[in-house]
Each structure stands twice: as structure tokens, then as C-alpha cells.
Amino acid sequence: PRVLSIQSHTVHGYVGNKSAVFPLQLLGFEVDPINSVQFSNHTGYAGGFRGEVLQGAQLTALVDGLHSNGLLEGYACVLTGYIGSASFLHAVLDVLRRLRAASPEVAYFCDPVMGDGGKLYVPAELLAIYRDQVVPLAAVLTPNGYEAELLTGRSILSEAEARSACEALHERGPHTVVITSIALPGRDDELLMLASRRDGAASRQWALRLPRLRQDFTGTGDLTAALLLAWMQRLP
């Protein structure tokens, strides 16, 4: 199966496409990566980062090049992650519409990368675009706890509230929602992962409690989204 993966690229470290593409290839997928940014390193370094945030016209040009050579057809899935500009995110919407006009069954896996731990690390204007335009087009949505709060406009302070947030996100369009990491008050030693799948009017939900490691890791959400795509395609 072919996957179009649109997310970040860093020279150093494993985030974005560098975290997602190789595992997908190992699992038998043909992956075409498009980089939304070109950074020296991820944005959390104390010394900052250098590089370029790509704009919508650059994405459109790349996709037009694929189309001109008959390479835009045949994608089974689109996977998106970190996107650094509003124009690029709007162009992603155009790409999805083009792909689905030719193949309505193209599955869109959206990791709405905006922030974590109460802190945004993308321009604030992206939130409304994700909430109102991107999420309704997604088949599968994989926010972390903070991103789920942003998209629903509600706090997640308990497992019950997390389950309710999944239902609210289903109402916006995605049939599958996986909140990949939720740090609940009073549970400092664990993280909650909550998956929810809606079939018609009914939802099934699964909770996974994971030991919380006192380390900082980057690229884990990108890897998780890629693996969810792989195994949901293999085992629908």
C-alpha cells in the first residue's frame, strides 16, 4: 500500500517523517514523504533551531509535479503530523480533496500536532483550521491529551472526561479517535491512552494504562500514529 506522509523533517534526531517513514517501510508500505518544515533539530532545544517553514505554494508545487508524472494516483492513506504554517495546512486540505476526487476511499490519518503539556508549539491560528476544517476530513485522529483539550474546548481531568472528549471528536467526523497520552491528576506514575471507535451510533472504547517514565522523548507521537496506520490497514 502507498502512503503519502506529510510532516516535519529535522537534520538531527528522529521526529516527524524520520520517525514515521522507516517503520512504515519495514511493515511493507511504500511511503512518499513530503516535509512540512526543514529544521536543524526539533524545537525544544535550549539553543533554538534553524531552518525553513514551508508554505502552501511549495506543497502545491510538489503535488503538481507528482500529478504531471502520473504519480498522484494510488495512495491508500494520507498521514499528516507537524505542520508549521496556516497556508501549508490549507494546502493539505486541497491535496486531500484532490486525492479523494480520484479515489474516495483514501483514508486520512491526522495527528493534529499543536503542543503538549499545556504549551503550543505551532502558530495559534492553526487550531481553528484543525478544529473546523481538518478534523471533519479525518478518518483517524490521534491527538495527545492537550491537543484533545484544544480541539474540544474542554478540560480532561479524568478518564470519564477523556471518554467524553472522544465522543465529541467523533461528532466532528473521525470514526476512530486515539488520545495517545493523557496525564491525569493524582496519577503521576502512569499515562492513559484511550482509543475509541464509532460504528454507526455506537462507540467502543479501550483504555491502556502505561507506566510513566521520568524522561523526555520526542517523536513518540509520530511513531505511534505511523504504527496505528500500519496495523489498522493490516487488521481493519
Automatic annotation (TrEMBL):
Name of the protein described by the UniProt record: pyridoxal kinase
CDD domains for the chain: pyridoxal_pyridoxamine_kinase
Chain ranges of the Pyridoxamine kinase/Phosphomethylpyrimidine kinase domain: 77-230
GO molecular function annotation: ATP binding; pyridoxal kinase activity
EC number from the UniProt entry: 2.7.1.35
Keyword ATP-binding (UniProt): yes
UniProt key word ATP-binding: yes
Gene3D superfamilies listed in its UniProt record: 3.40.1190.20
Transmembrane stretches, start-end: none
Keywords on record: ATP-binding, Kinase, Nucleotide-binding, Transferase
Record organism: Emiliania huxleyi
InterPro entries, sorted: PM/HMP-P_kinase-1, PyrdxlKinase, Ribokinase-like
